Records
---
Amino acid sequence: MLLLDVSNIMYTGASASSSYFGEGSEFKLRSIPYFFQKVAAYYGKDKDMIAVFEKVGKMPALSKSTGYKSGRNRNPLVEWEITALKELLTRIGFPILEVEGQEADYVINNYCRMYGDSQDIYILSADQDLAANVRDGEFTTQMLSYSTVSYNINKSNFKAITGVDYNFMNLHKILLGCKSDKIKPFPQGREIYQAYFSTLESKWRRQFGYQKGTHTSADFEDSYLLPLAEFEQFVEWYRLSKYYDDEGLRELNNRRQLVEGPVFDLPRVFPVNWQAYNDLIASLNMNSACSIKAIRSGMYNKETVDEVIYILRKAQSANLTMFEGQAGELDGLEEVGDIQNILGLLDTGGAL
């Protein structure tokens, strides 16, 4: 299963080249074409995909906070495209996962918790926090790259890319903090982290008869890091360490809740309807890089085109974003002044 971190992908797409949906159109798109390009690019990796959306309430209120994840930059141009994309995907039956009041990374974390023992999971996102879900075994979890200058994250290259020891992403963030999420370092956090890590390695050496030159750091990770990377194991050590105090433990638990997020079950989703997906791509007249299989230029469905125009206009004119709720329903399809230009471009085989 491939989980698409929609907001992350769309914001990355905002730096891509823009295209107009129709000559002279007001609909200047960047993120939507970029999203569809990524879907097509990874179709061969795993044909089962889920688009994971945020559903966290109003971003402005969150941004005014001085706490966790405050100060996030907003881009209304991207946000209206996300609103429109969600509606487009809903209309064609593309599987969507969202949970009221929860961010996409928490949804992804819970998906990995629920299904990590029964299926291979791939995560398309540049949010390295999600690397905490990376695992290796009968069923694996990997983060896939959508940039030519970065790498897929798996167990073997985890530390080289993230700078954090394998499967220690969450604990590293809890103790050492995170600038982007406005988490300050825990008092003596780096010292505590290093002391805990050294304790684990010492136990491993005693248990497995470590011999220098024979055993490697990879052996250590395989044999001891993974089972003791859980937060509860760390707390057991912390209680017996010289660093322990009651207030510190409360703060660590609070940080854990923020970093790992709540535990919740997810609604069932159904497989992608790839025929409906390709029909949408054809009607948008995007280039073949956006489609799962080659499409003939100009082979579009006029009803779908009208629907797309309606959705784009509704998302834009409602002045709402994914952070502020769903765009309100309009009474009917309003006149779009450049509709003839749009249809004319499609008729002549022009590409978005």
Note: Residues 62 and 270 are 32 Å apart (CA to CA).
---
Amino acid sequence: MGLFAAAVGAVAAFGVWFWQQSARLTAYGEDVVAAIMMANDALAFGKPRRGADYRPAQVVFTLDGDTSDGHIGMLQEYMKRLSDFEPDEGAGFDERVIGQVLRTHIPYSAPLRFPDRLTGGAEVYTASVNVYWDLLPGGRLTLPYIHCRVLVEGRRDIRMIASPKRKRSKKR
């Protein structure tokens, strides 16, 4: 019985921690437009009958709140700079993990800052995020971006969010 109680306690503790992380992201996170760098192929076809409600994608974003087509184009330019990316000797944590993600395609879900040598000092981030079919327009990935809520300070986190509703202009 002691082992069972310990297991239940561990599950409960994880649940509380997860809830706290989610609440922190909701309260303090910033909404961004994240360009899709690479995504699971299934996202283009829609949700399968069985399986998870999401598939992973690697995204690139900034914190400046720009949602224009020009901004998405700029993010795509940063993505191109990663095509032959190799971490520098003695590189920091973010740079080493970005190199590992690109090499292995194993997701890393916390936002990582691009090295300044690729951005000229601009704050550009990449992260692996779960892309949920029910949050995609038409239930499949048809746009080169998604909307996310992110935290890049302290405990870094990212989650896909629904696309903000655009205000309709009133007919006069």
Note: Residues 30-161 form one domain.
